[in-house]
């Protein structure tokens, strides 16, 4: 009887862990070092796509000393491929935002977060290191 209860508990926890493993985030592109590009790099790439903002989700927030780092998942719908070929319906990438904590006393002028509502043009290069699917490096973006 005890063995059946233990097996039932293991089955329940095992299936719960398995369902969480399926909730993976699948990105289609990446920013250099997952950070905002300042200043914007080259725009004469082989792939240029026009996109409409869909969502921004905070994935992780970590405080280290006087700084708080937030990892955000950014999703845009692809509305038009202007140049080259892009096989995905969306461009999905991670971007880190770093900001001083309130307690630190560090005063910085807030820069405009570039990934907000509206449309944006992304300039991409295919990532040659990813051989199993189409994956891209974002080299620049503009309004």
Structural account:
It is a single chain. By secondary structure, the protein is mainly beta. The protein has one domain. It contains 1 helix and 6 strands; from the N terminus they run αββββββ. It has a 6-stranded mixed beta sheet with strand order 1-6-5-2-3-4, with no helix packed on it. The protein starts with a helix and ends with a strand.
List the SSEs and their pairings.
Blueprint: H1 2-21, E1 29-30, E2 47-64, E3 67-83, E4 90-100, E5 119-126, E6 136-142
Task: Explain briefly what this protein structure is.
With 143 residues, the chain is mostly beta strands. The protein has one helix spanning 2-21, and strands at 29-30, 47-64, 67-83, 90-100, 119-126, 136-142.
Helix coverage percent: 10-25%
Biggest sheet, spatial arrangement of strands: 1-6-5-2-3-4
> What's the mean pLDDT score?
82
What is the element string, with H for helices and E for strands? HEEEEEE
Q: In total, how many beta strands?
A: 6
The whole-angstrom Rg is 20 Å
Strand content: 35-45%
The backbone outline, from C-alpha atoms, is: globular
Q: Largest beta sheet, briefly?
A: 6 strands, mixed
- Global structural class: mainly beta
Write a concise keyword list for the protein shown above.
single chain, about 140 residues, mainly beta, 6 strands, about 15% helix, disordered N terminus
